[in-house]
Amino acid sequence: MTTKERYDSAKELYKEIGVDTDKAIESLKNYKISMHCWQGDDVMGFDNDGPLTGGIQTTGNYPGRARTPEELMADIDKVLSLVAGKHKINLHACYAIFEDGNRADRDAIKPEHFKKWVEFAKERGLGLDFNPTFFSHKMVKDNLTLSSPDEEVRKFWIRHGQACIKISEYFATELGQPCLMNIWIPDGYKDIPADRVAPRRRFKESLDEILSIDYDKSKVLVCLESKVFGIGVESYTVGSSEFTINYAASKGILPLMDNGHYHPTEVVSDKISSMLLFNDKMALHVTRPVRWDSDHVVLFDDETKEIAKEIVRNDAMDKVLVGLDYFDASINRISAWTVGMRNFQKAMLYALLSPNEKLKNLQEEGKLTELMMLQEEVKTYPLGAVWDYFCETNGVPQRSEWYKEVEKYEKEVLSKRQ
Ligand code: RNT
Ligand code: ZN
To answer: Which is the catalytic residue, given 75, 295, 303, 388?
Structure first.
């Protein structure tokens, strides 16, 4: 049977439960995911030779890490050739590209240091998102940046945040689409602090100063990411969930929820509907927490599907801005990236193919027995046939075919990076 024949038969089955597969495919085609650049080089960046700090860690030493902007860009191209649709690339400030002696420290970076990224994005019709980098730098003192009691440290990072707003604005202007700028700081304490409020007060004041500069709010969507703990900052993080949600609400910026940043049985999927009742837009970092790590490769697992369902059921495909955030150095990085991108798309397709109206009505009518039955039956509908057809009609490999490309690339390109 051809992919099209399998699709046509799946289409009939879905039709019986009121789902229009053509429509689902069309919505998915235009759906943008912000792909994090940092899976390609283990969050190293190009502006320092030091280790990754900030309580995040990559483990593994799989050969082929991108070491230069050219290598990283080539790797991103490879991944995007295996993923349908036009997406965004999410950059960190540490991915600045310095040339002709125009090197600048984090507090003095400028749009010109990202010119090559803008050219890269323009040529490919991609958008860009941005993140100030408050880690892997000598001005992080005692695990503190924007909340530091040392005024010199705090001011340095305020200037960094402001510089990043300008760069984000440049991205948006050049590419004709808004740039999401995400602030996440690693600040916290390994052990019980004596004063929980002073660092948070300083963080608040620092953010106020960053946001006080003049910028176009329709172009730069600033968001703030929370975290519950990091490696070496186990007892207290300054940017806790309550801090970031309240700060974002009070300032009219976006909250960002990373689903690796909560207690183990707490799920982001349940938070989305509440957040959307009080925010026009919000952002997510989609990742996979495993015990102490918050950054494993995104799988097609229950919580990923649940997050996707919430986005679709809240009619929020343009309100919940999704970026991926993980870094695995123990396996082929191109594969890690592709698996995550394809999985989130697949989760969105799964959500779009769910008989959402019907299920909602069953709940409203109190027919909870039937609701459970249908939710369970839908799980084994032929999603794969629709997914394959989506891949085929968008010119990307079906099923595990894409992996052949990765093997070839590993042999011809990655293995030569010694
Ligand atoms: C860290 C945060 C943050 C980083 C990236 C590299 O815990 O999730 O988003 O992972 O900025
Ligand atoms: Zn994150």
So the answer is: 295
The finding on whether 113 has its CB within 6 A of some atom of ligand 1 is: no
Ligand 1 contact, 106 CB (< 6 A): no
Task: Tell which atom from ligand 1 comes closest to the C-alpha of 92.
Answer: 11
pLDDT tens readout for residues 257-269: 999 999 999 999 9
- Which amino acid is it at 402? W
Which whole-number Å values give the CA distances from 192 to 135, 240, 293, in the listed order?
22, 15, 21
Whole-number Å distance, alpha carbon 184 to ligand 1 midpoint, is 7
pLDDT tens digit string along 365-390? Answer: 999 999 999 999 999 999 999 999 99
Distance CA 80, CA 83 (A): 5
Q: What is the DSSP letter of 36?
A: E
Q: Is 325 in the pocket of ligand 1 (CB under 6 A)?
A: yes
Q: What is the pTM of this model?
A: 0.97
Cα distance between residue 61 and residue 75, in whole Å? 17
Question: What distance in Å separates the CA atoms of residue 182 and residue 68, rounded to the nearest whole number?
Answer: 24
Structural domain includes residue 21: no
The atom number, within ligand 1, closest to the CA of 258 reads 8
Answer whether 43 contacts ligand 1 (Cβ < 6 A). Answer: yes
Please check whether residue 367 lies inside any domain of the structure. Answer: no
pLDDT digits (tens, 9 = 90+) for 183-215: 999 999 999 999 999 999 999 999 999 999 999
**Number of domains forming the structure of the chain:** 1
Question: Could you tell me the residue range of the domain that residue 312 belongs to?
Answer: 32-355
Amino acid at 133: T
CATH number of 208's domain:
3.20.20.150
Q: Taking phi first (over 0 means left), then psi (-120 to 50 degrees means alpha), and beta for anything else, what does residue 291 get?
A: left
**Two structure tokens written together for 345:** 């798309």
- Give a yes or no: residue 17 inside a domain: no
DSSP for residue 322: E
Distances in whole angstroms, Cα of residue 359 to Cα of each of 100, 305, 313, 349: 60, 16, 10, 17
Q: DSSP character for 38?
A: G
In a domain, 6, yes or no: no
